[in-house]
Automatic annotation (TrEMBL):
<dbReference type="InterPro" id="IPR011711">
    <property type="entry name" value="GntR_C"/>
</dbReference>
<dbReference type="InterPro" id="IPR000524">
    <property type="entry name" value="Tscrpt_reg_HTH_GntR"/>
</dbReference>
<dbReference type="Pfam" id="PF00392">
    <property type="entry name" value="GntR"/>
</dbReference>
<keyword id="KW-0238">DNA-binding</keyword>
<dbReference type="Pfam" id="PF07729">
    <property type="entry name" value="FCD"/>
</dbReference>
<keyword id="KW-0805">Transcription regulation</keyword>
<protein>
    <submittedName>
        <fullName>Transcriptional regulator, GntR family</fullName>
    </submittedName>
</protein>
<feature type="domain" description="HTH gntR-type">
    <location>
        <begin position="28"/>
        <end position="95"/>
    </location>
</feature>
<dbReference type="GO" id="GO:0003677">
    <property type="term" value="F:DNA binding"/>
</dbReference>
<dbReference type="InterPro" id="IPR036388">
    <property type="entry name" value="WH-like_DNA-bd_sf"/>
</dbReference>
<dbReference type="InterPro" id="IPR036390">
    <property type="entry name" value="WH_DNA-bd_sf"/>
</dbReference>
<dbReference type="GO" id="GO:0003700">
    <property type="term" value="F:DNA-binding transcription factor activity"/>
</dbReference>
<keyword id="KW-0804">Transcription</keyword>
<dbReference type="InterPro" id="IPR008920">
    <property type="entry name" value="TF_FadR/GntR_C"/>
</dbReference>
C-alpha cells in the first residue's frame, strides 16, 4: 500500500496539472484543493518523511498565493501529516513504530478509564447518537469517511465521562495519532472485526456496565495497535529494502 515511507518518487505530473489546483477538484476552495493535493503526495510518497515544505515553493508549484498554502499547512497539521519544526518550519511527518506504540500505550491507560466512567453517565440521547454512528460505520465503504465517524464515536463516549483533564489528554493523544490513521485509511483493516469490537463497547455502555466497557475498550485499542504497528513495520521494512531507498 502507498505510504509516506515510500522513497521512490513517481514521475512528476505535467505542468498543466500541477498548476491551478483549484480547477482539479470541482467544488473545492483553493485551500482545500492544495490540502487534497499535498495529502495525496504525502500518502503516495511523492513528499518524503522529514521533507521541508516552503510556502513560496508550494504556492509557485500550484499556481496559487501563499494564503491557501498556509491554510493547507494548518489543515495537514491537524491531520498529523505535517509537523511544525523549530528550525525547519513545516516538515512531512515521519512515522515510527516506537512513536505509534508509545501513543497507544498511553491511550490504553486513559481511554478505557474514560469509557468506564462514561458508562455511568450516558443518557438515551448519547446512546442513540452512538448507535447511529455505529450504523454509519458499518454501512460506509469509503475509509476516509470512516475515520471521522470513528472519531465521533470515541469522543462521544469520552465526553460523557465529564472529566475535562482526562478528555484533554485523550484528545491530544488521538490528534497525535491521526497521521497513522490517515496512512492506513486506504483500507479499513479487519472492518468486520473492528465493528464487532465497537458493538461490544456499545453493549457494555448501554448496559451501564463500567468494568465491561473498560475491558472492551482496552481490547479494541490493543487490537488496533497490533494491526497498525504490524503493517507500519512491514511498510518501513519494505522501504528499507527498496533499491531506491
Amino acid at each position: 500500500m502507498p505510504t509516506p515511507c515510500s522513497r521512490a518518487r513517481p514521475t512528476p505530473a505535467p505542468q498543466c496539472i500541477v498548476h491551478y489546483v483549484d480547477e482539479l477538484v470541482a467544488g473545492l476552495t483553493r485551500a482545500q484543493a492544495v490540502t487534497e493535493r499535498l495529502r495525496n503526495e504525502i500518502l503516495q510518497g511523492v513528499l518524503e518523511p522529514g521533507e521541508r515544505l516552503r510556502q513560496q515553493n508550494v504556492a509557485a508549484r500550484f499556481g496559487v498565493s501563499t494564503t491557501p498554502v498556509r491554510e493547507a499547512f494548518i489543515a495537514l497539521q491537524r491531520e498529523g501529516l505535517v509537523t511544525g519544526d523549530q528550525y525547519k518550519g513545516v516538515v512531512v511527518f515521519r512515522p515510527t513504530v516506537t512513536d505509534l506504540r508509545e501513543n497507544y500505550e498511553l491511550r490504553i491507560a486513559l481511554e478505557p478509564l474514560a469509557a468506564e466512567l462514561a458508562a455511568e453517565q450516558l443518557d438515551e440521547r448519547d446512546l442513540r447518537d452512538l448507535r447511529s454512528c455505529l450504523d454509519e460505520m458499518r454501512d460506509t465503504t469509503d475509509s476516509l469517511q470512516y475515520l471521522p465517524l470513528n472519531h465521533r464515536f470515541h469522543l462521544r463516549i469520552y465526553r460523557a465521562a465529564h472529566r475535562a483533564k482526562l478528555l484533554a489528554m485523550i484528545e491530544d493523544l488521538r490528534a497525535a495519532a491521526r497521521a497513522y490513521a490517515t496512512l492506513f485509511a486506504m483500507e479499513v483493516p479487519d472492518s468486520s472485526e473492528t465493528q464487532a469490537e465497537h458493538e461490544a463497547i456499545f453493549a457494555a455502555l448501554a448496559a451501564h456496565d463500567g468494568p465491561r466497557a473498560r475491558e472492551a475498550m482496552a481490547s479494541h485499542l490493543q487490537h488496533t495497535l497490533d494491526v497498525v504497528s504490524e503493517r507500519l513495520a512491514a511498510a518501513l521494512s519494505e522501504d528499507a529494502a527498496s533499491p531506491s531507498a
